[in-house]
């Protein structure tokens, strides 16, 4: 035992491994197998749903968790990244686990790894799996951090695999075409197990890629679907016996209807018996941080969204079309993001931009480069030295009929959430 606090552990993990991202299952699988052999009296018993996709993963998991808890299931969820505290990544029954629980898992991993070097995220994943083994929730929901095939979460065989969407992002790790990215993400599928396909705009050779997994694929728009009903929507789900299950009058607000639909199909494919009225109530207002999250600061409406690729930016633009007043953006991205396409997709909905530097983030894009691309697209804006200063400037420029939009990265949204939280605490 080292008696390190959680903060000390996280600081150590952030600095220890030479690469922030190093895809591959060999190292993490060695440590996982060591844990299983030393802790064989408590085998992993939870049913597993693993979720991959360019966008929509967090929304899908939040929807599944809400529905499961409303039906009385015990649930573990592993998501990333966090916004305010690390504990958000590992939840039991919707609540982040405490520091002591995580530290104990870290201590165990450290005792097992010997000379195996693990990244920060691999430590995260192993800690979540160890905690879920020990606490034994009925169902564990695992979000893939990057890709799928070589992501640490893929050391566990999913009972149901979910692919929410496929688009260009993280090309330096996953490939520079949608087909290559799809192949990596489909790596979470298992032969003979359900695979829920939420993507409807198929990349090249997608059907063959899905077929090669030998999973039992269910396709949105073919095997299950949703349809609008004014301010609500209804879904048709495919049960194990190919019988259709219908759930109607689901609130078409907050999280996208497509992600709620994918979530319901995944639970149905797992064998959960769902009650229509309970589903309606659970999905009425699913709370999820940073996904079109609405707040207010100094009487100014604020929208926080982690959109960080062109596809997500396009969805965000669609959601802004009917808002009154001006939209003033606070934005920054990581250097591997397609900022030019994001600006193109959002340009018509934003009146003025405050571009921020993400201080202390090694992969952060240079603010001056972001501003130059914005100007080249005909946008108006200015560069600020930090996210905090950009947010303060945006609020001072807005009135109560306007909207301040914060987007571009989990880091950007987290900085503003932290700023607002500190302001509230100081009042």
Structure description:
This protein is of the alpha/beta class and 427 residues long. It has 2 domains: 6-282, 3-Layer(aba) Sandwich (UDP-N-acetylmuramoyl-L-alanine:D-glutamate ligase), CATH 3.40.1190.10; 293-426, Protein-Tyrosine Phosphatase, Chain A (Alpha-Beta Complex). It is 39% helix and 19% strand. The chain has 15 helices and 17 strands. It has helices at residues 6-16, 26-38, 57-70, 99-113, 120-135, 171-174, 178-185, 206-212, 257-270, 276-282, 310-320, 339-346, 367-376, 387-397, 410-426, and strands at 47-52, 75-78, 90-92, 95-96, 139-143, 160-163, 194-197, 216-219, 225-229, 232-238, 244-251, 293-297, 300-305, 327-331, 352-356, 381-384, 403-407. The strands form 3 sheets. Strands 4-3-2-5-1-6-7-8 form an 8-stranded mixed sheet, sandwiched between helices. Strands 12-13-17-14-15-16 form a 6-stranded mixed sheet, with helices on both faces. Strand 9 (225-229) and strand 10 (232-238) form a beta hairpin. The longest helix is centred in the C-terminal third of the chain and has 17 residues, at 410-426. It is globular, with a radius of gyration of 21 Å. The two termini are 40 Å apart.
């Amino acid at each position: 035992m080292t008696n390190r606090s959680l903060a000390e552990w996280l600081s150590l993990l952030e600095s220890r491994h030479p690469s922030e991202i190093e895809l591959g299952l060999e190292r993490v699988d060695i440590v996982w197998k060591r844990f299983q052999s030393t802790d064989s009296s408590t085998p992993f018993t939870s049913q597993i749903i693993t979720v991959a996709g360019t966008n929509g993963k967090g929304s899908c998991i939040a929807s599944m968790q809400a529905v499961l808890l409303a039906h009385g299931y015990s649930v573990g969820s592993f998501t990333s990244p966090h916004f305010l505290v690390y504990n958000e990544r590992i939840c039991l029954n919707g609540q982040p686990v405490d520091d002591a629980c995580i530290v104990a898992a870290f201590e165990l991993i450290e005792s097992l790894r010997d000379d195996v070097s693990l990244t920060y995220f691999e430590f995260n994943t192993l800690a979540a799996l160890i905690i879920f083994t020990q606490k034994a929730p009925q169902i564990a929901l695992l979000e893939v951090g990057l890709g799928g095939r070589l992501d640490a979460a893929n050391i566990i065989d999913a009972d149901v695999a979910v692919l929410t969407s496929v688009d260009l992002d993280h090309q330096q790790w996953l490939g520079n075409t949608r087909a290559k990215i799809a192949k990596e993400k489909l790596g979470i599928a298992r032969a003979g197990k359900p695979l829920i396909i939420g993507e409807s705009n198929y990349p090249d050779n997608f059907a063959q890629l899905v077929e090669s997994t030998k999973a039992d694929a269910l396709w949105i728009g073919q095997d299950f679907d949703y349809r609008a009903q004014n301010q609500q929507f209804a879904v048709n789900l495919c049960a194990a016996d190919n019988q259709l299950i219908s759930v109607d009058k689901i609130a078409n607000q907050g999280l996208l209807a497509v992600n709620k639909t994918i979530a319901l199909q995944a639970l149905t494919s797992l064998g959960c018996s769902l009650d229509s009225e309970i589903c309606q109530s659970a999905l009425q207002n699913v709370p999820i941080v940073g996904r079109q999250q609405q707040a207010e600061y100094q009487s100014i409406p604020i929208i926080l969204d982690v959109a960080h690729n062109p596809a997500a930016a396009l969805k965000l633009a669609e959601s802004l079309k009917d808002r009154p007043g001006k939209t003033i953006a606070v934005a920054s991205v990581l250097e591997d993001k397609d900022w030019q396409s994001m600006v193109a997709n959002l340009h018509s909905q934003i009146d003025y931009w405050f571009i921020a530097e993400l201080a202390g983030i090694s992969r952060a894009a240079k603010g001056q480069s972001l501003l130059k691309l914005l100007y080249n697209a005909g946008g108006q804006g200015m560069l600020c030295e930090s996210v905090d200063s950009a947010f303060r400037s945006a609020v001072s420029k807005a009135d109560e009929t306007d909207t301040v939009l914060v987007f571009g990265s989990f880091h950007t949204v987290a900085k503003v959430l932290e700023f607002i939280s500190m302001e509230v605490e100081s009042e």
